[in-house]
């Protein structure tokens, strides 16, 4: 159940959220219905004191998906996708991988630890 928040200082096309969700679903080997994707475009952002360049910050949280070795491949694939789709330089794409504790994620009026015991 990855939770994804993408922030960018540019406007994205209407179909981008679905396209990005499909891409992430395949990359992370998760069903599309399990992804929660939030796209926050047209934000005031700056990197290296340059507010005119296209910038993209991705926060992606999940339970038992991320680790130091796999994150390298995920970072490459996600950066390639975002730099192409959003016309953003690769060095202006920043990704924050977060490994979630199942007891700290609420779902189905309880926590994932309770409703999905295999996630422990």
UniProtKB/TrEMBL annotation:
One of its GO terms (cellular component) is extracellular space. InterPro entries: Macrophage_inhib_fac (IPR001398), Tautomerase/MIF_sf (IPR014347). SUPFAM superfamilies: Tautomerase/MIF. Pfam families: MIF. GO terms for molecular function: cytokine activity; phenylpyruvate tautomerase activity. Belongs to the MIF family. This is Macrophage migration inhibitory factor. It comes from Panagrolaimus superbus.
């Amino acid at each position: 159940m990855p939770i994804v928040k993408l922030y960018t200082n540019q406007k994205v096309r209407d179909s981008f959220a679905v396209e990005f969700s499909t891409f992430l679903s395949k990359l992370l080997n998760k069903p599309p219905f399990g992804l929660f994707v939030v796209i926050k475009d047209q934000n005031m952002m700056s990197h290296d004191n340059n507010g005119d360049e296209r910038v993209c910050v991705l926060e992606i949280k999940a339970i038992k998906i991320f680790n130091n070795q796999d994150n390298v491949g995920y970072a490459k694939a996600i950066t390639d996708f975002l730099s192409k789709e959003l016309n953003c330089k690769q060095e202006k794409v920043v990704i924050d991988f977060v490994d979630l504790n199942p007891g700290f994620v609420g779902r189905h009026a309880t926590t994932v630890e309770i409703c999905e015991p295999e996630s422990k």
